[in-house]
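re: ur question from earlier - yeah i can do the single chain one, its not a big deal. heres the input i used so u can compare w yours
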Amino acid sequence: MFAVLAHQGGWDEILLVAGPLAIIGGLLWLANRRVTAKLAEAESGADPTPAESSPPNR
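and the output i got, formated as tokens:
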């Protein structure tokens, strides 16, 4: 398989760089979207869900 991908005019090297960058960019986009939603929820004064509230005292 490596022989097939080696030196194919440069497109394979572009994929080796662009693939991980796209994955990292997608993860950053997802994290930013989740943080923005949490901030909007906090600003609206919504009650936190039980999973987000503090743990009960034992």
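The radius of gyration is 22 Å. not sure if urs matches, ping me
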